[in-house]
Write a structure and sequence with these properties.
Layout: E1 19-23, H1 56-67, E2 73-77, H2 87-97, E3 102-107, H3 112-122, E4 126-130, H4 136-142, H5 149-162, E5 168-173, H6 182-189, E6 195-200, H7 218-228, E7 231-233, E8 244-248, E9 254-258, E10 271-274, E11 279-281, E12 290-291, H8 293-297, H9 301-313, H10 319-322, H11 337-340
Bound molecules: S-adenosylmethionine (SAM) and iron/sulfur cluster (2 copies).
């Protein structure tokens, strides 16, 4: 399906389907306590067996179906996507067999040194690196003792050397854990093309035992940073842009804030997510996804497209806008972040 013939599908709140996040694996080489705490996910936890993961053929068919409904942006995520075998091969196929205009990947960077160049050669457009602290002890704590800060920074250098420029760096901020290091991070990345994006700690899933008191509202961080390096707001690039962007008045670059808790942006949420086992989730905080594998087993592309369109048309999600009115503990479990990516 070409861009010209794509059909636009909107949900119950009039939001079009524009972006897709595809989780290629549910395992991870880190155990960030806010996402996959070691206590719940020990070394031999039963993640999905490889046979339950979508195949590359399935993923291509899915992306083609989403594309025919207006999706132009695709982010590959996980778990840790670089653990998925032959990932550059998938990227190459997505480049050749779909018309996705913006193909991005989110990674913790541990294996980036090895994969940056093959991913670039395969046609990946952009990399987002998750990096919560430049203090080795805090970095260790926030990766559940699994990460190596040095290796991640080498991965970032390798990505630059491979030709990825203006890399977005996601910093998940948790009060009392890494918030004191925010200025250090800003100082480190000012005067580089990279863009730090501070993410408010979210109540995704159930296993991280989220507490509102650990959220540092973006406004507080903004004030702290601007007191040291004056900032100016930057106009939105496009409708649905997630990060609120600011540039340093002295020309030293740009930073962003993802304010899912303090200023939700559900009204502009045009994003669908696919779990590693092929379920479609229409919200990061959903309790259930719709298994698309029955349609993937058929060869009828129109039926798959129709199924996705119908699910999107039924969508009324706006969890973050309703958060304060919801009971503190919902009956049942929400999907975990590592199963559908960020
Ligand atoms: N493993 C890869 C990584 O860490 O970049 C990709 C998947 S990870 C689930 C994607 C993003 O979700 C990361 O930037 C991570 O910091 C963020 N994340 C995970 N749990 C979160 C939470 N509870 N609140 C806010 N962000 C979270
Ligand atoms: Fe792994 Fe990413 Fe979750 Fe950390 S945030 S445990 S790196 S999936
Ligand atoms: Fe989108 Fe759900 Fe997040 Fe709202 S809460 S922005 S609907 S993913």
């Amino acid at each position: 399906m070409t861009v010209e013939t794509a059909q636009t599908v909107t949900d119950r709140l009039g939001r079009p389907l524009r972006d897709l996040r595809l989780s290629v694996i549910d395992t991870c080489n880190f155990r960030c306590p806010y996402c996959m705490p070691e206590s719940e996910y020990p070394e031999h936890h039963d993640f999905l067996p490889a046979s339950e993961r979508l195949s590359f053929d399935d993923m291509i068919r899915l992306v083609q179906a989403f594309e025919s409904l207006g999706v132009r942006k695709l982010r590959i995520t996980g778990g840790e996507p670089l653990l998925r075998k032959h990932l550059p091969e998938l990227i190459g196929r997505l480049r050749r067999e779909t018309a996705i205009e913006d193909l991005a990947l989110t990674t913790n960077g541990l294996l980036l040194k090895r994969f940056a160049q093959p991913l670039k050669a395969a046609g990946l457009d952009r990399i987002t690196l998750s990096l919560d602290s430049l203090d080795p002890a805090i970095f260790q704590r926030m990766t559940g003792g699994r990460g190596s800060l040095e290796q991640v920074l080498e991965g970032l250098d390798a990505a630059v050397a491979a030709g990825f420029d203006a890399i977005k760096i996601n910093v998940m901020v948790q009060r009392g854990v890494n918030d004191a290091g925010v200025l250090q991070m800003v100082e480190h990345f000012r005067h580089t093309p990279h863009v730090l994006r501070f993410i408010e700690y979210m109540d995704v899933g159930t296993e991280n035992h989220w507490q509102a008191a650990q959220v540092v509202p973006a406004r507080e961080l903004l004030d702290r940073i601007a007191a040291r390096w004056p900032l100016q707001a930057v106009e939105e690039h496009y409708r649905g842009e997630v990060a609120k962007r600011y540039q340093f008045e002295d020309g030293a670059g740009e930073i962003g804030f993802i304010t899912s808790i303090s200023a939700p942006f559900c009204g502009d949420c045009t994003r669908a997510r696919i779990s590693t086992d092929g379920r479609l989730f229409t919200c990061l905080f959903a309790q259930q996804g719709k298994d698309l594998r029955p349609w993937l087993r058929q060869t009828d592309a129109a039926a798959l497209r129709q199924a996705i369109a119908q699910l999107w048309q039924q969508r009324g999600d706006r969890y973050s806008e309703l958060r304060e009115r919801l009971p503190e503990r919902l009956p049942g479990k929400k999907i975990e972040m590592y199963q559908i990516g960020g």
